[in-house]
Design goal:
mainly alpha; 62% helix; single chain; 74 residues; 4 helices
Length: 74
C-alpha cells in the first residue's frame, strides 16, 4: 500500500508502457531543474549536468555528436 506521493507515482508509472515511463522521467527532470532554478541555483546548465541527467536513462549516447547546422536546418 502506497504511503506517500513518491510511492503513488512509482505505482502509477509502473502501469505505463516504457515510452510513457520515459516521459514521466523527463517531466521529473524538468520539475527538478525548475525547482533548482527557483531555489537560486545557477541558471546555466553545464555540459556535465546534462551528461549526469541523461545517464540516469541508461541510453548509450557515446556516438551522438551535436551538429548545430543540422539542428538549425530542422
Amino acid at each position: 500500500m502506497p504511503t506517500g506521493y513518491a510511492d503513488i507515482i512509482a505505482k502509477e508509472a509502473a502501469t505505463l508502457v516504457p515510452i510513457r515511463q520515459l516521459e514521466v522521467l523527463d517531466f521529473i527532470g524538468y520539475l527538478k531543474n525548475r525547482q533548482n532554478l527557483s531555489d537560486g541555483a545557477a541558471g546555466e546548465l553545464t555540459p556535465e549536468a546534462v551528461r549526469m541527467f541523461l545517464s540516469s536513462f541508461k541510453v548509450d549516447l557515446s556516438q551522438y555528436r551535436f551538429n548545430r547546422d543540422d539542428a538549425n536546418a530542422r
